[in-house]
Amino acid sequence: VLREKKAILKTIPGIGDIIANELLVLLPELGSLTRRKIASLAGLAPKANDSGQFSGYRCIGYGRCGIKPILFLAAMAARNSNSSLKSFYNQLISSGKKKMVALTALMRKIIVIANARIRDFNSGLFCA
């Protein structure tokens, strides 16, 4: 089953052998959570810093250790590849987002795509 999940993850632009292995080890919940929960677990969901009428910045400094560096490398590779993720990144840059903000959005998109593909694989596996 892990071999098939690894093959599915490798179809996502920016994810190779090493990153697929790391994601399967660091996120065994991949495919069983919602997109918001998996983004939060990966540390890519913004947390509000609000109190009363004060509205602070949203930061992503939470989540499981070790996942964000792996996703950062995947996002860098996807940004340089010729894929729909590259066009998503370029669209964010052209709309005025900073490069790191666009990379973080790309990281979140990669983990959400990975979660959805593993979820679809699991649902097909257990329906038989």
TrEMBL record:
Domain Transposase IS116/IS110/IS902 C-terminal, first and last residues per copy: 7-89
Pfam families recorded: Transposase_20 (PF02371)
GO BP term, example: DNA transposition
Record-level Gene Ontology MF annotations: DNA binding; transposase activity
Coiled-coil boundaries: none
InterPro entries named in the record: Transpos_IS110, Transposase_20
Protein name, UniProt field: Transposase IS116/IS110/IS902 family protein
Organism: Legionella israelensis
